[in-house]
Design brief:
273 residues, Rossmann fold, 9 helices, binds S-adenosylmethionine
């Protein structure tokens, strides 16, 4: 068993296997991600029978396994075949192969998946993306009930009501601590060249609203439980053509809606009718 664990390494998830062994007992973050799960677990229904779950960036499958243990059927996706091999092996150890399906996919590929999910598990991936908002727009289209979200953040916990509008010369207000901001990481962070964006708390809430999600719980630092809000999601429909283009779909017909609204806005601005 230890030989198999070593052969499948290195491990980012410290799985506690049914026989008592662990896959990464000396993890630099501690007992990861068990300590994060301990914070989240009370917010997740104990019985997930009948729930369809999407675990994005499933890695070695720690969360897929915990959610499948609660009765969910899980689709775990990851870009990296190394982690998918670990997840497939781990699902077998827990006898959960029939509850956990694994696929090599990017989060953006979900746009072309003809499926909805009751729960989307979206932890530890957004800051690795170059197109983070696109991922959230895609996921709000595919979410029936809840999304559990975690990201690396930049400092700043304060929020304020977003202004309905503001003057083009009034840009200083964007420097306020409460303004939604996302820091761009051009090179490396902690030696890792795959980190791109670190939003503050206000930006997470604002981006989520803008993509059709409402924050319902904030179980711990950098962790959020969200629900789809139909009214918010509807508001974004005027921008459907960009979404369709970005996800490789026909957009020409949908752009009429956007152009029409834009023209109304421009007319109002210079006083012409
Ligand atoms: C920091 S780990 C987080 C793993 C796990 N979700 C967690 O929270 O413990 C990021 C994972 O996302 C995967 N990943 C990175 N970019 C991705 C993408 N575009 N689509 C899907 N998975 C991605 C990585 O291979 C890695 O397994």
């Amino acid at each position: 068993m230890q030989q198999e664990i070593d052969q499948l390494g290195p491990w980012f998830h410290n799985l506690h296997l049914p026989n008592g062994r662990q896959t990464a007992p000396n993890h630099t973050l501690g007992d990861f991600p068990a300590f994060k799960w301990a914070e989240l677990a009370p917010y997740i229904p104990a019985d997930l029978s009948g729930w369809e779950v999407l675990d994005i960036g499933c890695n070695a499958g720690f969360y897929s396994i915990e959610l499948a243990k609660r009765g969910a059927t899980v689709l775990g996706i990851d870009v990296d075949p190394h982690y998918l091999r670990q997840a497939a092996w781990a699902a077998k150890q827990f006898d959960l192969e029939d509850k956990i399906e694994l696929k090599q996919m990017q989060v953006y590929d979900i746009a072309r998946l003809d499926r909805q999910f009751d729960l989307i598990w979206y932890m530890g991936v957004l800051y690795h993306l170059r197109y983070p908002l696109l991922s959230l727009d895609i996921l709000s289209q595919k979410c029936r009930k809840q999304m559990v979200f975690q990201t690396l953040t930049m400092p700043g916990e304060k929020t304020a009501e977003a202004p309905e509008d503001f003057d083009i010369n009034d840009r200083k207000r964007m420097l306020a601590e409460t303004w939604p901001k996302m820091a761009f990481i051009e090179k490396r962070m902690a030696g890792d060249p795959t980190n791109w964006w670190a939003p503050n708390h206000a930006a997470i809430e604002a981006m989520m609203r803008s993509c059709g999600f409402r924050v319902v719980e904030h179980p711990g630092h950098e962790m959020y439980i969200l629900e789809v809000d139909e009214a918010l999601r509807k508001k974004q429909q005027w921008n459907q053509s960009e979404y369709l283009s970005a996800t490789g779909q026909d957009w020409q017909e949908a752009v009429q809606e956007k152009v029409k609204d834009k023209n109304v806005y421009m007319e109002g601005r210079d006083g012409r009718k």
